Amino acid sequence: MEDINKKPKYIAEVLTEALPYIKKFRGKVIVIKYGGNAMSDETLKEGFARDVVLMKLVGMQPVVIHGGGPQIGETLNKLGKKSTFIEGMRVTDSETMDIVETVLGGVVNKEIVNLINHFGGNAIGLCGREGGLIEAKKMIVEKDDPEFDVPEIIDLGHVGDVHNIDKSVIEEIIKDDSIPVVAPVGTDKSGQSYNINADLVAGKVAEILEAEKLIMLTNTKGLLDENGKVLTGVSVEEVDKLISDGIIHGGMLPKIRSALNAVHGGIQTSHIIDGRVQHAVLLEILTDEGVGTLIHRQNK
Length: 300
What we know:
- The protein is α/β, with parallel strands linked by helices.
- It is built from nine helices and 16 strands.
- Helix 2 crosses helix 4 and helix 6 packs parallel to helix 8 (252-264).
- It is globular.
């Protein structure tokens, strides 16, 4: 009899733990940056879609910003093009930009939308370049060189930064009781397309929508200290020190900077979570322990 009652009791405890979080975040916008292993493993993909649908059903307002680096890399490899990264950004020439638009705005975006809808959601796909949703500007990367008095300017090609986002498009989808799914491609005033890091877009979208939370899925357990231990909760000041000490570097930098900027911009918390964990989003939002790092405005 003990074994028979064990599972129902566990389920009841989980639901009881989730209840105050459901009440707290009901009606709140939660921006999720979707990428990494969570986009390539079939079980994790289905789990993510179910998480987003459940969030919507209990009254939260999820907004999904997706990446697609592995898919872009795979397509480039098939065409014999080598990928080069600088400061975590993919160097993007004109040919690569065409591939980025096709993969992100077409293949990946539609797959995510279809999967969410398959599990009972009402997702609507958006490509940032359409209708002026994401206005971009060319990204300028500077690198200090001891041989020169001025920093070296590194040209990343068609890699952009976010200049402006037309939030009305996303807000209309939310009001229509649907789930926006956004591909991070933007255009400048001349119509030139730019590949934009999904972390940057997610951070800006969270800011302009005044989101309650920004959640970023990664292929790590969260933000790690110098000993490789997960930091479950840190302030922006503590994260700044980790960056200045060189503990946070490489491909993690755009993600962390976006998380910090979002918190500075007014959202309550940013979360760096392990997307390799099944139902990571729900575990982070609806449980006491979570599955990653929470970044808040000041020491608590």
